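Issue 218. Parser rejects a valid record. Input:
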Amino acid sequence: MPDVNDGNDDRREHVPSRQRRRFEGISSRAYEHPADRSALVALRRLTGFDTVFKALSGLLPERSLRLLFLSDSVRVSDDQFAHLNDMLRDACYILDLEKVPPMYVNQDPQPNAMCIGLDEPIIVVTTGLVELLDEEEMRAVVGHEVGHALSGHSVYRTILLFLTSLALRVAWIPLGNLAIMAIVTALREWFRKSELSADRAGLLVGQDLQASMRGLMKIAGGNHLHEMNVDAFLKQADEYEAGGDLRDSVLKILNVMPRTHPFTTVRAAELKKWAATRDYQRIMDGHYPRRTEDKDASVTDSFRQSASHYADNMRNSKDPLMKLVTDIAGGAGDLGGKLRGKFGGGGNGGANTGNHGTPEDGDPIP
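Output the parser choked on:
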């Protein structure tokens, strides 16, 4: 572990409570999910987004938010929730975040955490989350939120919160509401992807994959670890991705659209998959992009990585809709027969396809 500076910066003077690797000068590009970067680029290209962003940047009640948490929540410090304060400083030290953001505990039984703010990020965790997680699980969550801060996600998260509230108030204005909801939908799509990036940051901070898995499992099923099993929980993600027919694929899309977070089983599976990659091991070995190199980073390379990620996902996906799209893109014939089979149509339609051989993977057996 690098030596601690002798300066007055609390972040640099505070060494993590147990031996953890520190990533000095790490760029958020090191852990950002390719889908996070591509979704954010797509969001910025959305018609009207730049106009809305510039307008809202000057109108959003950020001072009001800060005053609200200051007056009606408990600010984490050496005197209040000292164990959370230690975790926060640990996380900022490990990810080399220049300034420790203020952190508040808000009374709410719903387990939740967020990083918001335009000029400077604020981290808020609920009492429900603090009471649910053990120390190592909570450490991963704090690292998750510090990852959001380092990536600059708090700006877009704040706008999403504001626009969601605004959309409810102007729902009676058809065109106005449609315009706002288009941006809200795009923001939600990006934010779901950004959660995958922040989960990776949480793992880099906690450096305990099992704790990250347990935390996600508790968020899904509560504080009943003796009744749950991580491997069985991860199998749910496989079943979710591969199960059903095209109708289930469409329902998955409809279910996820109103959410700001991906489903917990999906997050757990994605994080475990990343932890097994060479990219993760290289970071742990000290080989990662630095913030000093960000200005020279290639946008084209980012697009290429995102495109490669989506192509790999399409090829390897077990989801019936993704398999159908891949088949069509590959020039597979008999689209009508495949649609009937994928939608579970059965009947005589399947018998007339001319395919009397072994059913393809994912196709229902007649």
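Fixed in the parser; the record now loads. Residues 1-12, 345-366 have pLDDT under 50 and may be disordered.
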